[in-house]
Specification:
The structure is a single chain. It contains seven helices and four strands. A two-stranded antiparallel ribbon has the order 1-2. The longest helix is centred in the N-terminal third of the chain and has 15 residues. It is globular. It starts with a helix and ends with a helix.
């Protein structure tokens, strides 16, 4: 009987979202859970027009990359870069989102910057902050990652949360 009462209390605590050991852990308002692919990832679900690059340049105040501090002679020398990669966002909750939400994510200026092709395709690719951080402006990057994840109600895994915490203290 005592065990049953404990289980009932534990179940009630979980349903109410208390800080019991089985309740979901949070970090900066984000649920901390392993990544999960609830539907197949297709880049075409996260399409964006190349014309958005002009808006990115305008938001940055020039043709440069916050990741390296490098200024470019023309937009042809850069890639459009998603701060939270599209596949990462997919595995962090957007796999269950509407098509409109996925398109909005893919074109959100909060999540877009410029990078050289070498950095975008060769270094960062679809990596999260646990696997890649920029050479410069790491606190800016960490703030953007958190803001984007909060805006789209994305989850975060423990390794990435820990890396983001370290990025502004190293």
């Amino acid at each position: 009987m005592r065990l049953r009462k404990s289980l009932v209390s534990l179940t009630a605590a979980c349903l109410l979202g208390s800080a019991s050991p089985v309740a979901a852990q949070t970090w900066r308002g984000l649920r901390v859970v392993p990544e999960s692919r609830c539907s197949p990832y297709r880049a075409s679900d996260y399409s964006y027009p190349q014309s958005i690059e002009a808006r990115i340049v305008e938001s940055l105040g020039g043709i440069w990359s916050p990741y390296t501090g490098r200024t470019f002679a023309s937009r042809r020398e850069t890639d459009i870069e998603h701060i939270v990669a599209r596949s990462e966002a997919h595995d962090s909750g957007l796999c269950a989102a509407t098509a409109e939400t996925r398109r909005r994510f893919a074109t959100d200026l909060l999540n877009l910057t410029l990078a050289s092709p070498g950095v975008n395709r060769g270094q960062k690719n679809a990596r999260d902050a646990a696997e890649w951080l920029p050479d410069q402006n790491q606190c800016w990057f960490a703030d953007r990652v958190v803001g984007i994840r909060q805006k789209y109600n994305l989850t975060i895994d423990r390794r990435e949360a820990d890396a983001l915490d370290r990025s502004c203290t190293d």
